[in-house]
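ok trying this again, last paste got cut off
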Amino acid sequence: MLSSLLLCSLLCSGLGPQDGDQDPVLPRITDDNQEAPLGAEGQQLERGKIPTGTSDLARQRFERLSSSTWTGDTAPARLRSFMVTFDARVRAASSGSNDLRTTFLYLEEGRGYVRGIFPKSRRESVRGPEGDWLLDGEELLDLSDHSNLESRREHQRWLALARNFATLASPGNLRLGRLQTAQVEGEGQELKIGEGLPIQFPSSGHAKRARQLDWLQLTTPDFDLLASKGSRTTLRQVRLGLDPKDGRVRFALVEPLDAKTHRTTAPILVEILSWISIDQRLLPKQLLVHRSPATEKPEDPGLPVPKPTRLTFEELPGVDLFLVLDQTKMDVNLSAADFARPGPR
């Protein structure tokens, strides 16, 4: 199988979705040629460019964040490809938890090509130049087919996690629509951080840690949600909690920029517990992804779903990812051909 040969060559050379989440649209035709989103000045967003009018403090925090993920004297080239392996625990309210090992290949091309390999379940989840595909054992599913709802949701979840890992590993390359500092207000488990809805953290311990961080608030298309209809150019609102000691991200709260979308697309709270140095880059070693609980629907189906008054997150993470160091390599030699449709051609 292509994936097994590819993984072997790379290693030897150098080394559940929630109820109420929106049905992700995964078009067969990729948006490789889609223009970058526009900023407030009507110009296309450029990677690493700080918006005009950004305060000195916000600029200083972003510059420190940008340099927090490399260990050498000079910044490495932009991270465009990697192979990472995670030991993962995925929790679902209806079916308990599932432990698995997964390997992601990632290439910064087009919408961001991703190949997720799941040996335990004999599955491969692929986004590449030929579209979105799931190989389930011997069955190949075209995920542009709307009959595969659950498979598309799972596929979108893994795409989002791989893409968010890439962004966290190279934050200096963010495309920024807006960048500002955010003040923290509140003493309990619910905090007001910058603009937007208050945040009900998973526990009082999470809230205590959040109060000790330096916060940035920004808009960018470079973070993704676990279930989303947005394309790669959709702006999202992100609040980043930075460790004042080293400038690294400890919390990343990602939500739709359009408040109306909160009713159908759940925000996520990513918690980075530790970082590790690999190939002169500092990478998230353990990530916990906390999801919002399912929105309660009104008893009368004719009534609209009420607007949220706060962002609430479950105490137990929906996804727990732990990096497998000896099966992780940055800046690997990948091409679009490595993200071809899986299975027999």
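PB: full thing came through this time. Residues 2-295+302-339 form one domain.
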